[in-house]
Amino acid sequence: MSHSHSSAGRHRWRLAVAFVLVAAFFVVELVAGLASGSLALISDAGHMAADVTTLGAALIATRLASRKDSTGRRTFGSYRAEVFASGLAVLVMIGVGIYIAIEAISRIGAATELAAGPMLLVGALGLVVNLISLFLLRAGAAESLNLKGAYLEVIADTLGSVGVIVAGALVAWTGHAWWDTVIALAIAGFVVVRAILLGREVIAVLGEHAPDGVEPAAILASMLELDGVTGVHDLHVWRLTSGMDVATAHLVTAPGTAPALVLDAATSVLREEYSIAHATIQLEGAGSGPCRGADW
Fold this sequence. Notes:
Layout: H1 2-10, H2 12-36, H3 39-65, H4 81-107, H5 116-141, H6 145-174, H7 178-206, H8 216-224, E1 229-241, E2 244-253, H9 259-274, E3 278-285
Parallel strand pairs: 2-3
Antiparallel strand pairs: 1-2
Keywords: Ion transport, Membrane, Transmembrane, Transmembrane helix, Transport
GO molecular function: zinc ion transmembrane transporter activity
Subcellular location: Membrane
């Protein structure tokens, strides 16, 4: 686990530079969008806002994850900061999608004047900013999930910048402002779909669902295969934040089984087969009467 956090920490400067670039460009794009009347620019700025949130969350999460808990009450640390920030990004992205849809409907039949020059200029500038950010984040993306999320976000945003350039070119070439609206709706649709996918992940984490790719039934079967284990119950497996899965279970052991060996075997199976580094295993003898564990 320390590997992922140290790698995120080591690449922190990359995140910081990308964050400053994207945040500054978000402001430029929003102002240019409102000034030129381009919905495509405003739509892409909304995606940039989600980028700013994601990059900011990754920065905060790498700092919080390594921070010592001074209250003594945060027994899970502050790892969930990243999940809450992702939730905020989802709300921003859906909000932008709704705004663009309403704005596009209100433009139907209205003659809209657009400044195609600023659209092209800002779109090109956005592409440069995104390519620099991609170059910065690529190195850390393979090592840290946090950075990987930010990297994927910027890749998606690069498409948005290309969309803005295409919209600007079409408006300049044809003189029809509705090209801008069409491309804005396409970008907004893309943003909303991504928001829903990200939202599902956030809800799964906050709802304490079993992590993707981890089958509780498979863990149960693996535990039952261990030498000396005759029963498994009260198995819970959930995700604390990306890259950190946690499990608890009660194992019933046969008489004469060495507890230390069973514990070692159980924790190594969880770590090696299911990448669960943090597990709490409770052992019970077969004849120790009914379990006084949790009933949920």
